[in-house]
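Shipment paperwork, digital attachment
Item: protein structure file
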Amino acid sequence: MLRWITAGESHGPAIVAVLDGLPSGVEVATPDLARDLARRRLGYGRGARMSFEADEIELTGGVRLGVTMGGPVAVRIGNTEWPKWETVMSADPVDPDLLAEQARNAPLTRPRPGHADLAGMQKYDVDDARPILERASARETAARVAIGAVARAFLRQALGVELLSHVVSIGSVAAPAGVIPRPGDEEHVDASPVRCLDDAASAAMVAEIDATKKAGDTLGGVVEVVAYGLPPGLGSHAQGDRRLDAKLAAALMGIQAIKGVEVGDGFELARIRGSQAHDEIVRDADGAIRRVSARSGGTEGGMSTGELLRVRAAMKPISTVPRALSTVDTATGEPAVAINQRSDVCAVPAAGVVAEAMVALVLAEAALEKFGGDSVRETRRNAAAYLTRLTERGLTPAPAVETERVT
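Attachment content:
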């Protein structure tokens, strides 16, 4: 069983993650993780903080000479700003007089609407939002992106699965329907300032961000993750918590600021009739089983179908609005304006990279549940035997359909 956990605070010494249950023999190294962390930092509309919050990545366990050993994979992402915070965020007690000299130690008593601040202060019986926002911060997603890179390497090497993400919409600007990246398009997507595959939509999104920044506001949007090469049968219909789409939805909803998830055409299916909504099944010219359409997004009955997996996540606008929203000062009980902790206008492009990592982790877990294996060779062999058996039964799945490249 694949398990993962992260720890650490936004302004602490480091964010750490542990990925347990990964087979031995997966080829992965620090540059692979650093590459995805760099992709997480991409995106038009980010504030100055991205320029000085560097990622100091270190693999501290589970990997030897670029190959996993079968034990827990441990990752540490150091905070280059730690020297500025080591007194205020010290794990050990600090002299009260020394703390009093630190401007950064001033209590944060004006909780920000849309953040974890107020609910966290209520839940954990604290009078300062600092202990809440430090852990609730999206900085934590760096750890998930790092171990997601390990999960992606496993999926590629064990099953030949390729994952990509892209931005579908930012604010009111949307890419053309049906524009989906295929393997090999990642560089093109990442070259876009907003990680959108369609160049015209990308330019319009940049203009939307510029206008929103000028207005002193923020933007959200929708990202999509696609997976090519998944075999059918990952997940299960037998229990609700084992359904692949349920696991994907939970993982994506667990990303900070995500407020909605859909698989395939999702919400659009609720607006059309059943005769139009379902993917009819045919046998193609090569004798393989395939769906005529792809509205279900690659899952049926809580299991993968072998078709292209498509899942989308909707990110709300950044909650810290530059023109400051109304709140209450919990120290005085008086009306106030919310504290302003950052200056981003839009973080949707980065959300796509985080979503990609979470989908990778869920699919890796589902693959190991289905095929097992203490080494990547064993998992690969088990998966190959399963696909051979499908062929013997006349149920060979057709390859996922790749769309035409959009330039």
